[in-house]
Amino acid sequence: MKAKSFERGILSNYDYKKSTNKVGLAFVIVVILIMVGSMVYPILSTLFNGLKANTEVNSFPPRFLPSEWHFDNYDTGWNYIDLTQFLGNTLAIFLGNMIVTVVVLGLAAFSLSKLNVPFRKGIYFFFMITLFIPPSTYIIPNFLNLRDLGLLNSYWAFWLPAGASAFFLLLLKNFFDDIHHEMFEAARIDGASEWGSFIRIALPLSIPIFSTLAIFVFSSAWNEWFWPSLVMQSDDTYPLATAIYKYVIQARRLDLNIRFAILTMVMLPPIVVFLLFQKYIMRGLQLGGVKG
Amino acid sequence: MKQQVAMGRSPVVKIGRKPGRWKKHLWGYLFLVPAAVIFVLFLWVPISKGFFYSFYHIDFVKGNDFVGFDNYKTVFKDADVWIAIKNSLYYMFLGLVMGFWVPILFAIIISEMRRFQGFVRIAAYLPNVLPAVVLYGLWRWFYDPVGPINGALTGLGTSQIAFLSDKSWSMISIVFMESWQQFGSAMLIYLAAMLSIPKDWYEAAEIDGAGIFRRIWHITLPSIRGLLMLLLVMQLISTSQGFQSQLALLDGGPNKATLTYALLIIKYATTRLDYGVASALGVLMFLVLGGLALLQFRLNNKGGN
């Protein structure tokens, strides 16, 4: 934020100087500190619990920092379940979903936005209306449908439906709408085909929106645990989140410190991605402010 | 539902009769084909099948049997259904009482921060990037009888609370956990809207003698009214379908206290293997939520999307 935008907000400089407001201001600062603390404390305690000895995690009342640092917990955690396998599965799901999103929804959004097809309003409506159908109402028929199609226990059960996202289509179409028509007219005059202008102009220009989508797709591939647990039926295909749910969260005889070490390993990648790509994520939030 | 599918596709057929136009827009339609096929196959077909299956007894081995309204009769006779509806309403209500106003309040405060605003925003959003499974593991420990919250309570000299196993606390604990996680994203959405309010409005109000709270009440809140309504409806839609935390942390217990309607659908399918009744429950939910969804649609359009 630029300093300039803070010339005033709800409060003016005069309000800040008024002594009667000083108490309120101090109170607000305390409230913010408490908020920040309560947001960060649980995350840090996950991290630190993963570094304690098991007896220390179980001691009451709990302490925040470990008294001795057990980095070997990570080693034990890593070998507790085949994390590399599950990580690979998650990445496979992410990559496939991303490719389908780019190709299928990219093409459709491009056509709806730039190719002037007749009845495109009606077609667009046919896609958008699905945004308003609550997914839980057809979650079981959806499962039965995948079963009928013979897609259970295969990555196609994720990859293909990844193209059925009205929300992503909306974001892409809005993005293409902002690209000038002239650019495509010029390409057409120079003899480019529709396919050519999609590949050579539309795709390269839409790298920012695809980065935003990539973050959405990544976070859902990383987070989703319930749906994959229905659709996938073996360790070879479980994504990371489902495996963690089955073997760590539901485990009865797993030491708490190891449990937290594993959870920390699962939690760190999204946090790192978030801190690195903050800008895109914040923009994605504004774009998707109205996501269901 | 089937009809809508046909409506969406009919243009293709019509164009076919005019060869000139057909050719001109060939690529345009070709580009739409993959998306249309996928939407039909993975959204419209399952949605229609839901209605269809709700009249059938589903058996993977022997094949499906038409049973008329039997599934619906089962639903209305099942006492769990009423418990689940009550729990879902309670869950939606708690979400509003405990979660809805907090982001608005903090957005107002943070929009006034002149320093460290970026840092506070990041901190507020951080829980949002935690994967759900980490959230469950973390908060199960937090709520544990020997966890940090009860540790603090003991330190203060009050008695301990069984956050998860006490019937009257379990739903509250789940809503608190979810509000903690989702707080940041709603806050950032409000914040963006508040920062775009013209500053001269406040200036004018101040000159006219409006105090801080009256400025918030008469300028800030009315300016975000549309967004507020939209997020309210969206929260209702999403909480009415909530089941994952309830399933992961408590499996609907203790004594069905966190058995929400959506969780009941899942249970019918996964533990009782009665997919017909699960579909019927879904259809009923669809009919009720349809009204809410229409409202969201209208708000969305008004919001100038």
Automatic annotation (TrEMBL), chain A:
Secretion signal, residue range per the UniProt entry: none
PROSITE patterns with a match to the protein in the record: ABC_TM1
Residue ranges of domain ABC transmembrane type-1 in the record: 87-277
Pfam families per UniProt: BPD_transp_1
Subcellular location: Cell membrane
Gene3D superfamilies: MetI-like
Keyword Membrane: yes
Membrane topology designation: Multi-pass membrane protein
Transmembrane segments: 23-44, 86-110, 122-144, 156-176, 197-222, 258-277
Major site of localization recorded for this protein: membrane
Keywords (A to Z) from UniProt: Cell membrane, Membrane, Sugar transport, Transmembrane, Transmembrane helix, Transport
Family recorded in the similarity comment: Belongs to the binding-protein-dependent transport system permease family.
Name recorded for this polypeptide: Multiple sugar transport system permease protein
Species per Swiss-Prot/TrEMBL record: Paenibacillus harenae
